[in-house]
Amino acid sequence: MEQRRLLLMVLVAMLTVSMTSCGNDDFWSQFSGCKNVNAIGETRGDSTNPLEMESVEYEAGKSGVLYLKHINVMLNCATEKVVVTASVNDRHIKIIENPIGDTANCVCPMDVECKITGLSNGEYTISFYRNNDTDLYLEFKIDYSDSLIGSYIKNE
Question: How far apart are alpha carbons 78 and 132 in whole angstroms?
Answer without folding.
Answer: 19
